[in-house]
C-alpha cells in the first residue's frame, strides 16, 4: 500500500461487524467477559479500547513501526517515552525542542533522576561531545522551532547505534507524510497529534510508534500503568484528521512556498527561515531525509515594534500558539512560545525580538500574501 492509500485504509479499515466504512466510536469503559478471563481482547478501556486501537494501528502503519500508542496529549506521549528509562540515565536533547518538552525534563523528570544535556543537535559533534557513560538516549526535533534548524537523522542514528543509545525523534513538524524517522534509523517516534495529524484545531492528542517488541511491551505497560490514554471520541477525530493528511500537507507546503517567495522578494525583511530555501543551512540534509519541507516558516522584520505592528494588523492570520491546522496562525516566539527563555539565551539561539513565526494554513495564498503586504506596510 502506498502512503495516501495507507492514510485512508491503513490500521483497522472500517467496522467488520456492520460494514460501516468508518471505525465506530466505542464509548465504553468495560467489556463483558464470557467467563473469568475469557474476553474478546478487551477488558477495560485504559488497557485497550477498539477506537483507540484503530488509531494506534493507523499511526503504526503510516510510520512503519512495530506498535503505536495514543495518549491524551503530545506531552503525555513524550512523558511515557521518558518513563522507559531509569533513574540515573542521561539524555541528550535538542536545545530548541518544544518548550513543554524542555519543561517536563527540566522541572519534573529531573526530580526523578533523569539528567539532561541540551545541545544543538543539528551539529553532530555537539551530540557526540555530550555523550557520557550514563547516556541512554538522544531526543531531537527536526526541523526545529522557530528557526527550522535541521538535524541529520541518519547521522545521529549511526552515532546512537555506535554508543548503544536510543534515538527518539519528535516528528510533529514533518508528520509521516514528509518524513519517517524509523526508516531513517530512529528507534522511537513521537507526535503532538494536536497539530498536523489532527489538523483542525479541535483535538489534543499524542502518538508514539516504536520499532521493536520489547519497547512495545514496556510502553504498553507504562501506558496502562500511568493511564494518560486518548479517549475514544478524540481517537476517532484523529483518525478522521489523518485520512486527509496527504492533501493537507501538500496544500500547506504549496501555500508556504508562495509566502516564502513573497517574503524573500521584499528588501525590508532581515531573514527568512525555511528549509526549502536553497541557502538554508539544513536544505541538503532535509532533501536527503524528507520528501518535503513543511508548512512552518519564520522571518525577521527587524524589531519588536514592527513585529507587534504586523501581528496587530493581520486579518487572516490568527494570533495564537500551536500550529498545523487549516487556519493560518502567527506568533512572536520571543514574546510567546519562547518568553520563558532569558533574553541573552534567546539571542544566542538566534531568536530575535523581530522574529515572526507562521504556521501556514489552507486559505488562498493570494489572500494570505495580501494580508501580510498590508500588515508590513
Ligand atoms: C505542541 C507540541 C508538543 C506538545 O504536544 P501537546 O499535544 O500540546 O501536548 C510536542 N512537540 C512539539 C514539536 C509540539 O509542537
UniProtKB/TrEMBL annotation:
One MF annotation (Gene Ontology) recorded for this entry: homocysteine desulfhydrase activity
Pfam families: Cys_Met_Meta_PP (PF01053)
InterPro entries in the record: Cys/Met-Metab_PyrdxlP-dep_enz, Cys_met_metab_PP, PyrdxlP-dep_Trfase, PyrdxlP-dep_Trfase_major, PyrdxlP-dep_Trfase_small
Cofactor(s) the protein requires to work: pyridoxal 5'-phosphate
Enzyme Commission number(s) from the entry: 4.4.1.1, 4.4.1.2
Residues spanning the membrane: none
Keywords: Lyase, Pyridoxal phosphate
Keyword Thylakoid in annotation: no
Record NCBIfam families: PRK07671.1
Annotated PANTHER family: CYSTATHIONINE GAMMA-LYASE, TRANS-SULFURATION ENZYME FAMILY MEMBER
Family named by the database record: Belongs to the trans-sulfuration enzymes family.
Protein name according to UniProt: Cystathionine gamma-lyase/homocysteine desulfhydrase
Species: Caldalkalibacillus uzonensis
